[in-house]
Amino acid sequence: MKHGCLIVSCSRIQLALPIESVVEVARMVAPCAKLLRAPRYVIGVVDFHGQLVPLVDLPARLGLCPPRTPADLFAGHIVFLELPSGLWGMAVDGVQDLSREPMTPLSQAPRHLQGLIQGALRLADGERALVLHPSQILSVVIRARISAELLALSKPAQPQGGPA
């Protein structure tokens, strides 16, 4: 079993993702399709080993910056996470380090972040990184909407005119 956290930068803030949810880290790629009716922080879908995976601008999702375009993120990374709702790509500005330091609980999480933050890690430079609870990054309603869009994208096109 994997233990530790992946330290990522999101709009000049260092956050941590539990490594047990991380499947792979890749350089940013352009999405192969946009998702209609998706929130603005959903950039589109990317091909992950033959599977279409929704790509979320993590800093924009957390309200750290306005939603960005793929061109704004060209120097970033994608952290692929396995969540209870399936595989997701999280666009981040950078990947910093892997930490095996123990997580400490927060005495009082900000009200708007309750349930989203698991705790904090002390980093080598004396700073700290908040540890996100990956399954709470996305709401159930948004997951269902995006899942429906992905399902529609993954079905082959129906022939025009139907059977004669």
- Gap from first CA to last CA: 56 Å
The proportion of strand residues reads 35-45%
> H/E element string?
EEEEEHEEEEEH
> Roughly how much helix do the residues carry, as a percent range?
10-25%
- Model regions low in confidence, pLDDT < 50 over at least 5 residues: 153-158
Largest pleated sheet: 5 strands, mixed
Structure classification: mainly beta
Oligomer: single chain
The count of DSSP E runs of length 2 or more, i.e. the number of strands, is 10
Strand order of the largest sheet: 8-1-2-10-9
- In DSSP terms (H or I, runs of 4 or more residues), the helix count works out at 2
Which geometry do the CA atoms define? globular
Mean pLDDT: 81
What is the gyration radius calculated from CA atoms? Answer: 17 Å
Protein described:
The protein has 164 residues and is mainly beta. The chain has helices at residues 58-61, 140-154, and strands at residues 5-10, 13-18, 22-27, 42-48, 51-57, 77-83, 86-92, 94-99, 117-122, 128-132. The strands form two sheets. It has a five-stranded mixed β-sheet, with no helix packed on it. A five-stranded mixed β-sheet has the order 3-6-7-5-4. Strand 6 and strand 7 (86-92) form a beta hairpin. The model is unreliable at 153-158 (pLDDT under 50).
